[in-house]
Amino acid sequence: MQLFPCPFCGPRDETEFHYGGEAGNVRPDGTDVPIDRWANYLYMRGNPKGTTREIWVHMNCSEFFVMERDTVTHKVLSSTALSGEHAA
């Protein structure tokens, strides 16, 4: 079992959280978007070895945040409340 730091509630059990996706996966704008761009947005994911930034939601307080963690060691480096500049 692992403890994840919610920026709103403090350290909590990992079972209280839900993965929301990679931070920076920006939805294409407009109705005239090429199909390959939509496919990249929907299906192509990085699988980095090392530090990564991800969107998570704490199911108890329903708040979204960005967690930076190491995918090799599972060490959480930071967690920050989600706002417009953190999503990209």
UniProtKB/TrEMBL annotation:
<protein>
    <submittedName>
        <fullName>Sarcosine oxidase subunit delta</fullName>
    </submittedName>
</protein>
<dbReference type="InterPro" id="IPR038561">
    <property type="entry name" value="SoxD_sf"/>
</dbReference>
<dbReference type="InterPro" id="IPR006279">
    <property type="entry name" value="SoxD"/>
</dbReference>
<dbReference type="Pfam" id="PF04267">
    <property type="entry name" value="SoxD"/>
</dbReference>
